[in-house]
């Protein structure tokens, strides 16, 4: 499905009924927006791992502008600010009130910005392996120098410089670096099916890492977040190290922190069941 909002067209998908039988009455389930990372990836990385959450919430997946199945446009419009405003426009397009906001990696940056800008529209906030500002770039380079292979360090230069030339080159980056992202990844096995089926956008990731992520900083706005917040980090995360999750949790009132001890950046690959349990357990609604 596609929504024409603002100056673009956003692809979205819905999983799970919104209205369910509850004894002698019908009950409306909460609606959760799932915000994918990258940038330059798409929402399909959440599927099917997050599908069980549809028993508790109605899930709305969407692709950021210029990514996945959403419309392409001028690459200078592929910004975090537009991602936030597109998300709010999609909420209004769907006629929704307060939503659960779940963002991972870059999607967590969008989620933090959205929840600080539109606190009255967020019932619960869950941010997974994300960061509050651009300092993560230099820290990730340090960790890569310590842990990465020569091949991984070489191909990551395209990430730091924002110089991916094609979808195939970006897919090769994720193939080469998969053991950095997931501590359970087998370097000799074929790439994960999630990356094979994803639609990748080099323009989006280049615009981010070669541009606006270098000045990204949401730290001063974090205290504006009023929703109950769950901050999830991973002990072995190389690109969004856990110290940033700890900092986010300290800055947001009414927040909880959970560090996954046996995961890299890709918690949904390393500890998927524990991740789902943490999210589902955090979402508590009065019946």
Defining key terms:
two-stranded antiparallel sheet; 10 strands; eight-stranded mixed sheet; 36% helix; 287 residues; Rossmann fold; alpha/beta
Give me a quick take on this structure:
The protein has 287 residues and is of the alpha/beta class. The protein has helices at 80-93, 106-117, 135-147, 150-161, 167-176, 178-181, 193-197, 202-209, 242-251, 267-270, 272-282; strands spanning 2-5, 8-15, 19-22, 25-28, 31-35, 58-62, 99-104, 122-128, 229-234, 255-260.
Shape: globular
Going across the biggest sheet, name each strand in turn.
1-2-6-5-7-8-9-10
Corresponding CATH architecture: 3-Layer(aba) Sandwich
Low-confidence stretches: none
CATH topology: Rossmann fold
Task: Provide the β-strand percentage band.
Answer: 15-25%
Which CATH class? Alpha Beta
Largest sheet: 8 strands, mixed
Helices and strands, in order, run as: EEEEEEHEHEHHHHHHEHEHH
So how many helices? 11
**What is the count of structural domains?**
1
Chart the SSEs and their pairings.
Layout: E1 2-5, E2 8-15, E3 19-22, E4 25-28, E5 31-35, E6 58-62, H1 80-93, E7 99-104, H2 106-117, E8 122-128, H3 135-147, H4 150-161, H5 167-176, H6 178-181, H7 193-197, H8 202-209, E9 229-234, H9 242-251, E10 255-260, H10 267-270, H11 272-282
Parallel strand pairs: 5-6, 5-7, 7-8, 8-9, 9-10
Antiparallel strand pairs: 1-2, 2-6, 3-4
Helix pairs in contact: 1-2
